[in-house]
Every structure is written in structure tokens, then in C-alpha cells.
Amino acid sequence: MHPGRPSASGSGGMSTEQLQRMEANRRRAQAKLTAKRRVAPPHTDISNWSPTTTILFQTIHFSFVYIVPYNSPPKSAPNKAVPVNSRIPSFYSKPPLNAPHLVTSVPDASIKVAAAMSRKPSPSLPPDHPPPVKCTQLRDKKKARVCMVSKTRLEVKVQYDHDLIEIFKKMPTRAYNTKMSLWSFGIEDYNSLVKAIQSSCKHVELDLIPRPVINLFLSQLQAQYHSIQSKSHPSVIDWSRIETKLSTTLMEFQKEGVEYSIKRDGRVLIADDMGLGKTLQAIAVMSYYRSDWPLLVVCPSSVRLTWAEAFKRWIPSLVVADINVILTTKGCGSFCLVNIISYDLLVRMSKDITEHRFSAIIADESHFLKNYRTARSKAAIPVIKSARRAVLLSGTPALSRPIELYTQITAVDKNFRLVSHTQFGLRYCNGVKNQFGWDFSGASNMSELQLYLEDSIMIRRMKSEVLDQLPSKTRKMVLLDLSLPKGGSKEWKDYKRQLNDAGKLKKLERRTALLPLFDVTGKMKLPAVKDYILDMLEGGRKIIVFGHHVSVLNGLCEALDKKAITYIRIDGKTPADMRQALCDQFQHSEQCQVAVLSITTANAGLTLTAASTVIFAELFWNPGILVQAEDRAYRIGQKSSVNVHYLIAKDTVDDFIWPLIQNKLSVLSQAGLAKDDFSSAESAVLTAKDATQKTLMDCFGDLVSKSEMDQLSNFDDTLELDTPGTSVS
User: Is 521 exposed, middle or buried (0-12, 13-18, 19+ CB in 10 A)?
Assistant: First the structure.
């Protein structure tokens, strides 16, 4: 026998010294337990417990223990119940099948601990133990989305739930779509349906229709009921309050837009497609509410003068002194009946504009206000909200996502201001929260939003819907604002002097004097032309831009490059074999937005029907060339009406060139020219025989007076491009 090893005899093979040590440990543990008042319930006597049992009682609330019997307890020995500490999780109360026996009582017999005891909670169960079973007394949460599907019905999108089905069956207007597995109801049951779900189905989370939306349709339903009862549909439009010249010019769909606006007290968003006469409709609406003037027109800087000309033309009762085009912040302390200001200038004059409290406002190209964080939105939105009448105009109110509509809706619709920006994003933009905040770039519940907009503030018609009422081609004169380049600069004074001198010369001498000024005119118009084109591109539409001089074409391309806008350019330096490929790129690529073309090089042989807007940055001496250039978009395959914009600047060579073009075109039209006199029969028919189409003279006749026209009628008609000295691309 090894001298250091205890004898195998005795109590379980342990030496007397070991037994004494165990007994001492037991007594210390018992004393410590008593000192800390860790006593068992009154009916439990722990004085006779074995050392192992005492330790088990102290530590059972810290860990989960498996034990197996070492010796079977005597049949006569009663089992003593071990109290279960309240900190033991409930899912440990029952042992899983095929698992080791879980001790719920401790026998007096000796036991062997089969698992280590630890005073710290175990972070996980033993690897061979099955996962715990969770309590299923609480029901899983379900989300139900309620949304409008028509003006009179709504539907509920939710997973199957027995309690919800029972509620649905009690609704009088219930309907079930077996194909879509969707329940729908009449909007008259909305309040009772929501109340029943909220009271009986606590586990269902409702995504409800915004209160302004449901209130609109409920009020319409109620009004319709009373209207049916009374059988009266009174008209609210008194057309005599609108200028006669204006009311007799409106097309039928434009009259519908005016009626829509007036029935909504002059607070609307007119979102008609480009070329459908939004400007005309807005002026008609404000003419109806003339008692609320002074009127404020907020627009891009490039069209301020165009708005002024429109008011002069369509409201003859206005005199020149009644129209105030605000060009600078200086000397603008007083306001007239009609005040026209740009968005950028409004930011700098926001204090003066706000203090004046305009009651009637027109906001042209209102998509400029799509971002509520920008300075222009912060300046314009409060002014629009405070006005009694507010007409917003935009052919593309939302360029890419529904969230861009929020500022425009709340500016016009007072009821919708109860819906916050975040609520709108969650409801209609499929809002998702990420590490940077809320992402509202998506779209959801679009049919509901469209229903609300159409019945509350927005009227929108596309060209395809009213094409039968439209002329095939519409020409428009746009007066450019050259106030900035003019100023008092020496260059402008020299230009003006040469222009006046040229008007006094004889025919042959006049031709020579005007040609170099024609080049200078293009350069002077360029800043305003660039602003106008960039404003047009804000609408996300494709456009064709014609220029004549190389300096103008280069300037346009530089502006597009700076804004990272994709474009094609075709001029005299473009190889012939590349032109068709460039046309195909413009026709089929969504990223390519602009075609920059030379009037003399690209006026024939090209098809660019992907665009329905043609802009002439410069004029040209020959009207036939202009008509040919227009027809690059107006060709077979064009499914829309073509809009042609001529950018004109007063007090420039345009004052001489345009009357010349008018005279020539008038003579050719009266002669009823045949096909040989133009590049195609299409041009001749359009110019001479289309009764619904405005001629160039109709569009630009107001630019010069009759006396000026008579003076220039004898201008040398032989003045053409082939005259030497002209810079041509």
C-alpha cells in the first residue's frame, strides 16, 4: 500500500482526516447559512440533511442540475420535498422526454452529483439538452393595413385571423374577393370597423387611412346623399367674372380645369402635361378672383417677362403700370396689381413679401418646391399657405418619388397639414428607417394617394387624353430677360448704337451691318437661354435645342456638361456616318435628355420624335428652314402634340429678323405653295392649310408694332445665310 494514499477501508474509502474536514465544512456552511437567514420553510428541517444536500439547496437557484441515484432509498424512508426557488425559469419545470431524471425531491440516501455546481448563472444549456419551449399564452402581433381602393370602398390587408373574420362578417357592406383573398367594405363602415378591431383584437396593429383622406370621401358621400335627396345640382361658375377675350379662347378641357379650380375656392395644383395651357388656366382662375388682388406670380427667372406679356395679352383691362416685374431687390417697396418675381429673388425678399400678405398667388413650376429643406421652399411655402387663393402649376409635380409632393400638397390643402412629413413618408413612400434616418425614396398606397389628390386639389390631363382638341403643333414666343447682361455696360451701349445705326441704313448697307450684330446677339442671349433650358430640364422631359452660331452651341454644351446632363450634338463638324447613331441614342436612351443641333446642318433628314419640345435659341433668316427644323420632332411616329418655343430678346437683332420672317411666311402662305417650295409636303400643309394651327405671325405679331412692321416690310428679302461674314456651325 502506498504510504500517502488513504486506506480503502472506512466510510466510502475516505480517511478519517477527510471525514473530519468534510464535517467541519458542513458546520461552517450551516452556520453561514443561518447567519444570512437562508432558512428553509417552517415545515422543512435541514438539520438532518447530508453535506451534499445542503450544498445543493444553497446552489440550486444558480444552475440546472442533473442527478442520478447512487443507492436506492429505503422504502420506509419518506422523501423530503425540496423547495423550488422562484428565480428558476418556468421552462425548466418539466423535463423533456428521454432526458436524465430531474430531481424534484432529495432522498435521505446518498446521492452522487452528476453535474458541476456553479454559483454563477450558466449562459446556456448543456449542448446535449433540447432548447426550452417558450410560453405561448400571448398571441403573436399582426399588422393590418386599411387602404382606399375607390372613392366609396376600402380594403383590409392582413393575415388570416379568426377573430378578425368574425368582425368582418358583421359589417353590412362586407365583400370578399376569393381570387385576391381580400376583404373590402364601404367607407361608411370605416369608423365602426376600426372601433370593433381596436376593442376586440388587441393583438392586431392597424395601419389606418390618414384622417384628412377618409374625411374627404366620407363628406363627399354625405354630400352626394343630400344632393340626391334634393335633386339639385347648382352651378357655381359665373363666367362673366372672367375677361371675355380669355373665356372665349379657352378650349373645353381648359374650361374644365378652370371650373375644377373655382369649385375648390381657387386652391389647386394644375398638373397638366406640357403644352396644355396651364398659364392660360391660371390667369383665368385669378381673373375670376380679381377682387382678391394684388396678385403675386412666383416663377423661374427665365419666364418672368413671358408672364408679363401673357397678362397684357389676355387681360386687356390691365395697363402697363398695373404689371410689376421685380428684377432686383432695390426700389421694390411698393407693389402693383400684378407682381412677378423669381424664386431666387423671393428668398432675398421674403420679409417684404410676407409682410405684404398677398391674398392671391400663382406658383409656376411648383416642383421647384419639392424639397422642404431648401431656402426657396422655406420662403415660398409660408406665403402660399397664408394666401386665400393659390394656384400651383407643374407638368411634373413629382420628378422621381411621391415624397416630392408633400410640400406642394400641404401648401395648397389646409386639411392635409394634419399629416406630418414622417407620416406621409411612412404611408405613401414605404418609409424605412436605417442608420442615417428615415428613407422615403419608395412608394406605397399610390392608388389611395391618387384618389385623394384628384378629388381634393389636383387636376392632371395628358396630351393623349385631349389630343383631339389640340392643334398638331403649337408655337410659343418666349421673351428672354436680358436685364442682367444689359445693365450699363459699354458693350451693350455699343451694341445698341450699332443697332440703331443699322436701322437707318439703306437695304444693301443694312444687310452688311446686321450680320456681325447677329453673332453678338447670340452671345448676349446665351446666359438667359441657358437658364431657360435648365429650367425646362427640371421637368425631366427630353428637348431639342437649335442654335446657329458656334459660340452659342458651345455655350449650351458647357452648361449641360456642368450639370452632368447627357446630350448629343450634331453640327457641321459631325461626320455624316455618325449622325444616325447619335439620333438613335437620343431616341432610345432614357439618360440622353437633350439634342443640341445646328439649324443649318440638322434641319432635315433626322427623326427625333422622342422629344415633343423644340426650342430655338436663335432665329434664322429663312422661315422655310425654321419649319423644316421644327419637323425633326413633328414626324411620323410622334404620338404627342409638338411644342415649339422661340426665344426672343427685345432691343436686339431679333427685332429686325423676326418681322422679316413673318413677312416671308405670310407671302408664302397666301400663295399656297406646293411641295417643291418646301423640303416636304408636310411643311407646306401645316403652314398653309391647318386652320387650328397658329402661324408664326399669330405667335409673334405682338412683338413689334404695325408701324415697325411697315417700316421693315421693304427690308431686303435676299438677305440669306449664304452672305459672307456669318459664323456658321
Answer: buried
- For residue 283, is it within any domain? yes
3-state secondary structure of 707: helix
- Among the candidates 441, 468, 495, a domain finishes at 468
Indicate if 148 and 25 belong to the same structural domain.
no
DSSP secondary-structure letter at 25? H
Task: Give the residue from 445, 380, 444, 431 showing the smallest Cα distance to 407.
Answer: 380
Beta bridge partners of 544: 595, 614
Going by their DSSP bridges, the two strands 142-148 and 153-157 should be labelled as antiparallel
The three three-digit cell numbers of residue 454, written as one number: 384628384
Where do runs of H (alpha helix) occur along 170-324? 190-200, 211-230, 244-247, 252-263, 278-288, 304-314
pTM above 0.85, yes or no: no
- Is 390 part of a structural domain of the chain? yes
Find the Cα–Cα–Cα–Cα dihedral 661, 667, 671, 674, rounded to 10°: -20
Contact by Cβ (8 Å): 397, 273? no
What stretch of H or E contains 297?
strand 295-299
Task: Evaluate whether residue 595 is within a structural domain.
Answer: yes
Residue with cell 443699322: 502
- Which stretch of DSSP H or E encloses residue 550? helix 550-562
Write out pLDDT tens, residues 619-648: 887 887 888 888 888 776 677 778 889 898
Question: What are the pLDDT digits (tens) for 232-264?
Answer: 444 568 889 999 889 999 999 999 999 999 999
At what angle are helices 654-671 and 507-537 packed, to 10 degrees? 100
Domain tally for the chain?
4
**Cβ count near 34 (within 10 Å):** 11
158: closest CA among 140, 138, 136? Answer: 140
Residues 351 and 479 in one domain: no
Is residue 231 within 8 A of residue 191, CB to CB? The reply is no
Same domain, 194 and 244: no
690 and 621 within one domain: yes
Residues of the domain holding 41: 16-113
> Any bridge partners for residue 81, and if so which?
105
- Which residues face 324 on adjacent strands? 339
Q: Is 464 helix (H, G, I), strand (E, B) or coil?
A: helix
**316 grid coordinates:** 386687356
Residues of the chain falling short of pLDDT 50: 1-11, 38-40, 43-44, 46, 49-130, 132-137, 230-234, 484-487, 672-729
Show the cell assigned to 248: 372665349
Residues 425 and 521 in one domain: no
- CB-CB neighbours of 417 under 10 Å: 12
End-to-end alpha carbon distance in the chain = 118
Pull the grid cell for residue 571: 453640327
CA distance linking residue 255 with residue 267, whole number of Å: 16
- Asked if the peptide bond before residue 527 counts as cis, ω within 30 degrees of 0, the response is no
- Asked if 368 and 538 count as a contact pair (C-beta separation under 8 A), the reply is yes
Q: Are residues 295 and 196 in the same domain?
A: no
171 DSSP assignment: -
**CATH number of domain containing 673:** 3.40.50.300
Pairing of strands 642-648, 437-439: unpaired
- Give the residue carrying C-alpha cell 430678346: 649
Locate 477 and state its grid cell. Answer: 414666343
Instruction: Give ∠ CA 145-150-155 in degrees, rounded to 5.
Output: 25
Question: Is residue 386 domain-resident?
Answer: yes
Q: From start to end of 365-440, where are the E strands?
A: 389-393, 432-434, 437-439
